[in-house]
Amino acid sequence: MKNYRLIAPLALLLMAGCSKDFLESPEVQKDPNRATEVTADQLFNGIQVKTYFLQEGSLSRTLGIWMQSLAGTDRQTGSLSEYEIVETDLADEMEEVFIQGGLVDIKELRSKTQAAGNRVYAGIAKFHEAFNIGMAASLWGDFPYSEACSDVETPKLDRQSDIYASLQALLDEAIADLESGEKGTTLASSPVNDVNYGGDARKWAAACHSPKARLYMHWAEVDPANYSRAEAEAALGIASPADNYQAKHTASLNEEFGYYTYQNQRDSYIRAGSHMVELLKADNDPRLALYFDRDGAGQYTGAAPGERNVNASMLSAAVFLNPAHSFDLLTWEETRLIQAECAFKTGDESGAAALLNEVRRGIETRWGFDAGALGDASGLTGDGLFDAVMNEKYIALFLNIEVYNDWKRTARPVLVPYGGGNPVNRIPHRIYYSNDERNANPNIPVPSAQPLRNENDPL
Length: 459
Known about the structure:
Blueprint: H1 2-17, H2 20-23, H3 26-29, H4 40-56, H5 58-66, E1 70-72, H6 75-80, H7 91-96, H8 103-115, H9 119-140, H10 160-180, H11 201-217, H12 226-234, E2 245-247, H13 258-265, E3 270-272, H14 274-282, H15 287-291, E4 327-330, H16 332-345, H17 349-367, H18 382-396, H19 402-410, H20 423-426, H21 435-440
Antiparallel strand pairs: 1-3, 2-4
Helix pairs in contact: 4-8, 8-9, 9-10, 9-11, 10-11, 11-12, 11-16, 12-16, 16-17, 16-18, 17-18
């Protein structure tokens, strides 16, 4: 008690001596462990990781369940298979578009590379901005973009069509930057950690043409002139499966493929989707064993929406539950199939069939299948040919978010939804904005005031 009586007045005296000015002194604020400068390559590393996270995380799983490539078989994934979704379900994903390797860091990387005169590196940064924001606008529709990551505290929602126009222009800039070959001096050796193309400007330029084609396709339902625009861009896009833009992973801790990590944490949540399994079985498609493992009875089985069958086949341990799997984000296969769809829509059925055959031969070579294992489309015409092109795209883009955008535009694949009825009306056509963003930004409407469809997806 005596010690306490002596210490208390001393503490009060010391506290009185710690003025506000003292606490705000630059010397006190210094943190020797805090980085004072983040390099361009450090920013780029985070941007690559964030891009992978967005493409192979909850968005991929949710949309894979709705597209019946996967089945949600336990707890929240079972609810997703019945289209029960609220604004908190994908809130993190909306926010991750902007933070910790998102748009904030991409804009900083663009600033640094442009200031250094490294147009090649700036073009790579612009590709990532267009790729990620294009994905966001395709799912949420109107989206904070032009005023995001700025001094504006409550950024507006830009119209979906305005965002797409901005991204097409941005990709044109990126291509011009990449084709210039200019690297300046201070960052001339960067990016040192480009795990996709090793800084190869030619490959990055081709990769920019592929999302241009993809973005044009998103508007073909509204304006069929976009088929010709998409076809022209796809012809300049990714030139071979060896140049596919992929999420790169290793078996090292924190570098594993997202589905591997998820399955290890939630073993019963995801199984094979019945539509994908039955489609592959019907065609005797060798990708059945590539995508899935046999169930406990030695069969390949899928679960239907709402079935919650945890005994159905799992993703393949050798490929899609391999921690080091390189996951396709933007590919030669997609690019060529865009050309095939465009050829069909513009009246060139023989060209569409030839492109479909080219893709099938390329897939056979890539995965070591027998020549001709995926069939010959040469005799197909009309709706049969169109269905074959879109089914091939559905299968080839397994787990890729883009399958959902294709379905919204074409109603392919033809799915039987949970509870029956018309899948075009039953399956959701967009996802809700983040509740956290809505609480902080009055420009975000409440769920009941949000549209059921986006601007490029009319009734």
